[in-house]
Amino acid sequence: MIKEGRIIKGIGGFYYVHTKDGVFECRAKGIFRKLHIKPLVGDIVEIDIIDEDKKTGNVSAIRDRKISLIRPAVANIDQAFIVFAGAKPDPNLNLLDRFLVMMEAAGVPVTIVINKSDITSEECLENLNRIYGKDYKILNISVKEGTGLAELRKLLKDKFTVFAGPSGVGKSSLTNYLVPDAGMETGDISRKIERGKQTTRHAELFFAGDGAYICDTPGFGSLELFDIGKNDLKDLFPEFTKYEEGCRFKGCVHIGERECGVKDALARGDIAESRYENYKLMYEEIADRRQF
Fold this sequence. Notes:
It is a single chain. The chain has 292 residues and is α/β, with parallel strands linked by helices. The protein folds into three domains: 2-65, CATH 2.40.50.140; 71-216, Rossmann fold; 233-291, Ribonucleotide Reductase Protein R1, domain 1 (Orthogonal Bundle), CATH 1.10.40.50. The chain has eight helices and 13 strands. It has a six-stranded mixed beta sheet, sandwiched between helices. Strands 1-2-3-5-4 form a five-stranded mixed barrel. A hairpin with a 4-residue loop joins strand 4 and strand 5. The longest helix is centred in the last third of the chain and has 19 residues, at 273-291. The radius of gyration is 21 Å and the shape is globular. The N and C termini lie far apart (55 Å). The model is unreliable at 184-201 (pLDDT under 50).
């Protein structure tokens, strides 16, 4: 008997596949190793059933993959929710911009989710909306108060959503809310440094009903910009493209050039200074890395 499902977890050579009849513990057939193909969390697979009652089987085929990420290694993503807290800890815009660049490079549609809206100042929310609201959907929520979670559930329906963001912002708490039996550790915020303790150790999917799969990923304190060329970085800032027709030179990177539509938009306040400064920092980081 053959069943179709989605890999929700992979540990120690075992793959746990969610099907309409429950979760099956599977091994991958040897052909994948010979072909140097490793099943990924998120893969849509066919499994040959070994024991229906014990729910065991073998992964025998992997469907064509859509969008995949390297870190975490997950496949067939429909969208990403980049989760940051509006307070405790305050949002790190450089880190937020790095997450956005990573998702833009992978072609993953993004919603910025600001948690802890119950303790976030109006000034902070207005500032984030001013910087990002023209190019990204922003959703203000409070897991503690239940604010905004009905709208969030609607956005999850029939999609595979990755939750990304730094530690301590409430990703695991949000996952526990959406999937009460997920059993995720949440950890306490370190009062001394107001940074979250690392609690998620591997990519794992949870079925949240209504066709929704969610994946809480490890929190990151920094993100390396691997595999992004310095001349390609500008294309990962969607607000830049609106003003590039004002650039005199083709291939303008909007840093040293004199006649630059992006820098003109920056001077007018049409592009947020924090976004441009973070772009320059990332550009210099990539240039330095390539040099050495």
